[in-house]
Design brief:
The structure holds 2 protein chains of 2 kinds. By secondary structure, chain A is α/β, with parallel strands linked by helices. Chain A contains 13 helices and 14 strands. Chain B has 13 helices and no strands. Classes of the chains: A alpha/beta, B mainly alpha.
Chain lengths: 327, 248
């Protein structure tokens, strides 16, 4: 549905996006993750044609978006960063205007498209309100309704939940998840739980480069070292003795707190927890808690964007790459 | 071109939901009313001095009271066309819609022209007033409005171009005022200089154009001038809007 090849954006000598390639298949929900200023918005703006790429190509539903921009633009609904809307208009006026602009002809068809997209974005109750007077959550959903007007196969959403409160975020995420299998969604975000909550796959961008790609659990397991956390009753020395053989190739940290000992053990193997349990029990010690430490996507993200980012000597300069257009 | 119509409709609506439109309309109606009143008063007091002139021929472009307010109001009328969409971010939504730059620019210019024409509706009252107390050369009145339409295209299109270039509305208005003001000043220099540039300056002079139209003389050179300037500004605006994608 969306193919990006060697996409590059250069501003003078500064390269904001450095020849990135990825693809989004039909029906997938893909998160485009990166720290602020990684070049996410610049990339989305090149995909949607607001910016012309310096080099590289974008294909939307097989159409070359640079050579045939208008036909390509008919294939997607786009919600730009910050959801720019005509604040002096009423919701239905704005959506009618956008529907006509997207080539929907005839009053009946326009009305039907507006009604459908309002319902899809669950914003029907605000239809007569002036956009400038709406709360941010409502505006966000009006923006989503706008993107849905022409019932496009591809949705491109730039930070769809930024500035929303937790309830609104949950509602928008649920809405996006509902598109799975029906529409292709490519959404950018710097919020990790969002990706875990909504996306089947993630492309991680840092300093204008793709530094990771895959499904969230796969990425998580890639950096997961398999740490166990436990709380037991006994002395620190007793635990140290009982777990000595794991500590040889792993890493053991213990701290005692009264009669309790808290510990963290980095150890390989799927049955590590069982082995630890047995070892502790054999030493006559008691365990109160034993759990595998979950590697969050946050850790993956941090390891990918800091390690790879610091290799790149001029990464600091790029950090405000996609803030440039904002003004 | 259907997209141009869609854009023009929205643009006109947005003109008339902003106070700027009403301020401009009110101010222009006041200034032009004052100018008409003064002219009628003067002609009434000096019945023999008129010659071929009457209050209407002088009203349409024959006085400073016509040009100076227009040079101020035209930039205000066009400053928002692109600059506002740039600052509010809606330009991104517009430029990523399946419409061509040409349609967008055509829609914007059409909307500005609707506003320009609205500005002149009250002046029909002056024509009616004069017709009640004397003879009105309807041909000359028609020619005057044709001239106003031509100048409108010229002014609105250049204002639109400046709005596309400028980063915000204030700069757009100032640039438009400078460009139109310079061209206007160059034009009226024809009354000052006496060498061979005089003819060129007269050709550029909207004052000359309008006084011909007001007398009922439809000179195709003047219309050609207006349409050429409009086409140039139109083409440049399309270039500026497309170029944004590359440079922004």
């Amino acid at each position: 549905m969306l193919e990006v090849e060697q996409l590059t954006k250069r501003y003078g000598t500064r390269e904001a996006v450095k020849g990135i390639s990825f693809r989004v298949n039909e029906g997938e929900i893909v998160g485009f993750l990166g720290p602020n200023g990684a070049g996410k918005s610049t990339t989305l703006r090149m995909i949607t044609g607001f910016l012309a790429p310096t080099a590289g190509s974008v294909r939307i539903a097989g159409i070359d978006a640079v050579a045939d921009p208008i036909r390509a633009r008919e294939r997607f609904g786009y919600m730009p960063e910050g959801v720019p809307l005509h604040t002096e208009m009423r919701v239905h006026e704005h959506l009618r205007f956008r529907a006509e602009l997207k080539g929907i002809r005839g009053k009946k068809a326009v009305d039907a498209a507006v009604e459908r997209s309002l319902a899809q974005a669950s914003v029907s109750d605000a239809v007569d309100r002036i956009i400038g007077q709406l709360s941010k959550g409502y505006r966000q959903r009006v923006g989503l309704a706008d993107a849905l007007l022409s019932d496009p196969p591809l949705l491109i959403l730039d930070e769809p939940t930024s500035g929303l409160d937790p309830n609104q975020m949950r509602a928008v995420r649920a809405l996006i998840r509902g598109f799975e299998g029906k529409k292709t969604v490519f959404l950018s975000t710097h919020i990790l739980p969002e990706v875990e909550a909504t996306c089947g796959r993630v492309v991680i961008l840092d300093a204008g480069r793709v530094v990771g790609e895959g499904d969230p659990s796969e990425l998580r397991s890639r950096t997961s070292a398999g740490a166990l956390r436990f709380v037991g009753r006994g002395t620190k020395d007793a635990f140290e003795a009982a777990l000595a053989r794991f500590a040889e190739d792993g890493e053991l940290t213990l701290e005692s707190n009264g009669e309790l000992v808290r510990g963290r053990l980095v150890v390989e193997g799927e049955d590590a927890a069982e082995k630890v349990f047995r070892a502790v029990a054999e030493a006559g010690l008691a365990l109160r808690e034993l759990s595998a430490e979950a590697t969050s996507l946050e850790d993956v993200f941090a390891s990918l964007t800091t390690e790879d980012g610091s290799d790149d000597e001029d990464s600091g300069e790029e950090s405000d790459a996609d803030e440039g257009e904002a003004a | 071109m259907r997209a141009a119509w869609t854009i023009a409709k929205r643009e006109v609506r947005s003109y008339f939901t902003s106070p700027v439109a009403y301020v401009v309309l009110l101010a222009w109606t006041f200034v032009s009313g004052l100018s008409f009143y003064t002219l009628v008063y003067w002609f009434a007091g000096n019945p023999s001095t008129g010659g071929s002139d009457n209050p209407l021929t002088l009203f349409f472009g024959g006085t400073v009271l016509f040009w100076v307010p227009l040079l101020v109001f035209a930039p205000v009328m066009t400053m928002r066309l692109f600059a506002q969409e740039k600052s509010s971010g809606t330009l991104e939504a517009l430029l990523t819609s399946p419409v061509s730059e040409t349609s967008i620019v055509a829609g914007k210019l059409l909307a500005a022209m609707v506003f320009w024409i609205t500005l002149w509706i009250p002046s029909l009252l002056y024509v009616w007033i004069v017709s009640r107390y004397g003879d009105v050369d309807l041909g000359a009145v028609g020619a005057s409005y044709l001239g106003i339409l031509g100048i409108g295209l010229f002014y609105m299109s250049w204002g639109m171009l400046m709005s596309a270039i400028a980063p915000n509305q204030i700069v757009a208005a100032i640039l438009t005022f400078l460009v139109l003001g310079l061209l206007f000043t160059a034009g009226i220099m024809q009354f000052v200089v006496h060498d061979e540039t005089r003819e060129l300056l007269a050709y550029l002079s909207v004052w000359t154009h309008m006084s011909d139209f007001a007398k009922g003389v439809v000179d195709s050179r003047w219309l050609t001038f207006d349409l050429t300037m409009t086409a140039l500004a139109f083409w440049l605006t399309v270039r500026v809007v497309s170029w944004r994608r590359v440079s922004a």
